[in-house]
TrEMBL record:
<protein>
    <submittedName>
        <fullName>Odorant receptor, family 42, subfamily A, member 4</fullName>
    </submittedName>
</protein>
<keyword id="KW-0552">Olfaction</keyword>
<dbReference type="Pfam" id="PF13853">
    <property type="entry name" value="7tm_4"/>
</dbReference>
<keyword id="KW-0716">Sensory transduction</keyword>
<keyword id="KW-0807">Transducer</keyword>
<keyword id="KW-1133">Transmembrane helix</keyword>
<dbReference type="GO" id="GO:0004930">
    <property type="term" value="F:G protein-coupled receptor activity"/>
</dbReference>
<keyword id="KW-0297">G-protein coupled receptor</keyword>
<feature type="transmembrane region" description="Helical">
    <location>
        <begin position="75"/>
        <end position="101"/>
    </location>
</feature>
<keyword id="KW-0472">Membrane</keyword>
<dbReference type="GO" id="GO:0005886">
    <property type="term" value="C:plasma membrane"/>
</dbReference>
<keyword id="KW-0675">Receptor</keyword>
<keyword id="KW-1003">Cell membrane</keyword>
<feature type="transmembrane region" description="Helical">
    <location>
        <begin position="147"/>
        <end position="169"/>
    </location>
</feature>
<keyword id="KW-1015">Disulfide bond</keyword>
<dbReference type="InterPro" id="IPR000725">
    <property type="entry name" value="Olfact_rcpt"/>
</dbReference>
<keyword id="KW-0812">Transmembrane</keyword>
Length: 367
């Protein structure tokens, strides 16, 4: 049997890239031959070598590249850390206020409670892992962990979207059918709406993840993002992506387009109802009840919409996409409790009540 020369024995291997990570083009192991003795030698990146089954090629690990050629980038991660801490404190505070104040145990604040809880979970699913990855230089992520990462980030994003739709429904009934509000918007009705939203969105994101798991990754393993974002990972696939294209389109419609259309329709109806109110003072009072929700809708949907339109219309630099994507997933969760604490009179009154109650309780203990 003829002995192979070193060039014939050499397979593609993972070369270090400019940032210390793997090159985006080559993958696998290197054979080194010594006289009379074949030796199988793996590169330092063997941990990222692919696993094969009958149908798909999956890497053991991906490499998260993050920002490219950006000086002082660690300051951005420190900023994200600050955002996460404030998100944690703000949403925990809002959840505590709604839980402790009985006057807030209403259908509307069931929805707000769900939004705050989702914001808390969504930020926790994303930011701590980003900080661990880039502040401590742990950029390799196991394939299964990457899939789970993507699943939870987009599940909570989808639930946030439909919670805002539920809040729009609440405002629509309150302004367009004020006399029937308490008979239509009940606790069981809102609980059922939220439960259905969770189940449907959980099923949709699960199907999307299942379709994603059918992709093969035989070229690059470098994800040009801070986390396992769908689009940057999807672009690395090398087999038929038609099913994933369909699921991505369905998810885009379900998470962005349909909620926006429903919210827009609800506010068209609200505008018509407000135009029929004779008193300007009553009209202004009704408008104030919608202000907080409109701010949340703008903060949540406009960055996502802008990023998607820009990516279709022109080329977006990976660094710009990373900033847009990370801020889209983090800033709404930071602002939601601030908006509801400062712009909603009921919450402000409830906070004052809690403060007075604590002062009286502390004064009684001292005596």
């Amino acid at each position: 049997m003829e002995r192979p020369c070193p060039e014939e024995a050499r397979g593609p291997r993972l070369e270090p890239g400019p940032e210390g990570g793997p090159d985006s083009k080559l993958l696998v192991a290197e054979f080194a031959m010594e006289p009379g003795k074949p030796i199988f030698k793996m590169t330092p990146e063997e941990k990222a070598a692919p696993t094969f089954n009958a149908t798909f090629i999956r890497p053991a690990k991906f490499y998260l590249s993050g920002f490219s050629n950006t000086p002082h980038v660690k300051y951005y991660y420190v900023f994200l850390c600050f955002v996460y801490i404030m998100t944690l404190l703000g949403n925990s505070f809002l959840l505590s206020v709604i839980y402790l104040v009985r006057s807030l145990h209403t259908p509307k604040y069931m929805i707000v409670f769900n939004l705050a809880l989702t914001d808390l979970c969504g930020s926790t699913a994303l930011i701590p892992k980003v900080l661990d990855t880039f502040l401590f230089d742990r950029r390799y992520i196991v394939y299964e962990a990457c899939l789970s990462y993507m699943f939870f980030v987009f599940l909570f994003l989808a639930v946030q979207s439909w919670t805002l739709v539920t809040l729009a429904y609440d405002r629509f009934i309150a302004i367009c059918f004020p006399l029937r509000y308490h008979s239509i918007v009940t606790k069981p009705a809102i609980a059922a709406i939220l439960l259905i939203a969770w189940i449907v969105l959980l099923s949709l994101i699960t199907f999307t993840a299942e379709a994603f798991d059918r992709l093969s990754f035989c070229n690059s393993l470098v994800i040009k993002s801070l986390f396992c974002d769908h689009s940057p990972v999807f672009l690395l696939a090398c087999n038929d992506t038609s099913l994933n294209n369909i699921m991505a389109y369905v998810a885009f419609m379900a998470v962005l387009c349909i909620p926006l259309v429903l919210i827009a329709l609800s506010y068209v109806c609200i505008s018509i109802a407000l135009s029929r109110i004779a008193s300007g003072e009553e009209r202004l009072k009704a408008c104030k009840t919608c202000t907080s929700h409109l701010i949340l809708v703008a903060v949540f949907f406009l960055p996502i919409l802008g990023t998607n339109i820009a990516s279709v219309a022109s080329y977006i630099h990976p660094n710009a996409r990373i900033i847009n994507s990370s801020l889209t997933h983090t800033i709404p969760a930071l602002l939601n409790p601030i908006v509801y604490s400062l712009k909603t009179e009921e919450v402000l009154i409830s906070i004052k009540k809690l403060y007075k109650r604590n002062r009286i309780s502390n004064g009684t203990k001292k005596w």
